[in-house]
Design a protein that fits this description.
Elements: H1 2-45, E1 59-64, E2 70-73, E3 79-83, E4 87-92, E5 98-102, E6 112-117, E7 122-128, E8 133-139, E9 145-150, E10 155-159, E11 165-170, E12 186-187, E13 193-197, E14 202-206, E15 213-218, E16 232-235, E17 241-244, E18 250-254, E19 260-265, H2 266-269, E20 280-282, E21 288-291, E22 302-305, E23 311-315, E24 324-330, E25 333-334
Antiparallel strand pairs: 1-2, 1-24, 2-3, 4-5, 5-6, 6-7, 8-9, 9-10, 10-11, 12-13, 13-14, 14-15, 16-17, 17-18, 18-19, 20-21, 21-22, 22-23, 24-25
């Protein structure tokens, strides 16, 4: 019996060692599978992940300019609609039509307003400018239009769909250069007007009824040689005002006292992305999209930045930069509020 037991011991020991090797191998494989599973769970739970090209941002937008004319760019970068009208301001309306502030051209010698039905490109409403240029247009809640008439007597004018003048308010700005008198004139929810006056280096808020200037937000804090001409002025929900400073290649946000509380320029971005920052739009997520009107060829023409000044989207298509624009959809979803422009 003793010789048998002594002979069995090496056999059992060898098989035990083989079993332990197999067990260790199985445990190693199991641990690797667990780690891979956890990694996938973290990845899919991350806000950076999306079935939509792994979180890539894609916008469709209405683009407006002199060389660029008026067009809608789809999320894949293709042109989904266009019309041969140069425009400085415009909107895709809730009914799908496109409203344009048209630069002086053959059809509108002194500038004008055109509402275009997209399917046929037919004009369903038009207004001929009365002075030198129409720089902006805004559809008002009552169905009338606010336009900026530039020329010897610059004014904020309200017209109805018959083209009849309902209200005029003179604008307090220089008269020597009509083109540079004002750009994105807007009516605020409180009924006041806000107007960026380029060569005056000031955004002014007006009492609509009296024409009195209630507030002035200067943009020449860096010196007028920087040419921080205000082009876009957006009154935000918190009362701050977002201003695009064109040739200064920066965007500033000021509080009610005119103090700068946020800004972004090429130095912040670490590269020369902004080149004539005319049009600006604040998106519902808090990001800011900015034009580079002087950009041409394959240069970046639209840039989206976060509050932390991180670039998250750019557009480089087309041959010409945009004076202004309106972001319409993001990753297939219409923007709930795309009027902060």
């Amino acid at each position: 019996m003793k010789p048998f037991i002594c002979g069995l011991i090496p056999y059992v020991r060898a098989n035990h060692e083989d079993s332990m090797l197999v067990l260790r191998s199985l445990l190693g494989q199991a641990m690797r599978m667990i780690r891979q599973t956890l990694l996938l769970l973290v990845l899919f739970a991350s806000p950076l992940y999306s079935d939509d090209r792994k979180g890539e941002i894609r916008h469709s937008f209405l683009g407006l300019g002199k060389g660029a004319r008026s067009s809608i760019i789809a999320e894949d970068g293709t042109v989904s609609w266009k019309i041969d009208l140069p425009a400085s301001d415009g909107w895709v309306l809730p009914n799908g039509n496109v409203l344009l502030a048209v630069y002086p051209c053959q059809k509108y010698p002194r500038g004008g307003v055109a509402e275009i039905e997209r399917a046929s490109n037919s004009t369903v409403f038009s207004y001929q400018g009365q002075q030198k240029e129409i720089s902006t247009v805004q559809l008002l809640p009552d169905g009338n239009f606010l336009v900026a008439e530039l020329g010897p007597e610059p004014r904020a004018r309200t017209i109805n769909r018959k083209g009849e003048i309902l209200h005029d308010m003179p604008l307090s700005c220089q008269k020597g250069n009509a083109h540079m008198q004002t750009r994105m004139l807007r009516r605020l929810p409180n009924g006041n007007y806000i107007a960026p006056h380029l060569l005056d280096f000031a955004v002014k808020e007006y009492n609509r009824e009296t024409g009195a200037v209630l507030k002035t937000f200067p943009t020449d804090d860096r010196g007028r040689e920087k040419r921080d001409w205000p082009f876009t002025a957006i009154r935000l929900a918190d009362g701050n005002t977002l201003i695009g400073c064109t040739n200064g290649n920066r965007v500033i946000e000021v509080d009610g006292q005119g103090e700068i509380v946020w800004k972004v320029d090429n130095e912040d971005l670490g590269k020369e992305l902004l080149d004539d920052a005319c049009g600006v739009q604040r998106l519902p997520n808090g990001n800011t999209v900015i034009t580079s009107y002087h950009a041409s060829g394959n240069r970046v023409k639209l840039t989206e930045v976060t509050r932390e000044k991180k670039v998250v989207w750019t557009y480089s298509g087309g041959k010409h930069g945009f004076h202004h624009f309106q972001v319409l959809t993001t990753n297939g979803k219409p923007l709930k509020d795309n009027t902060m422009k």
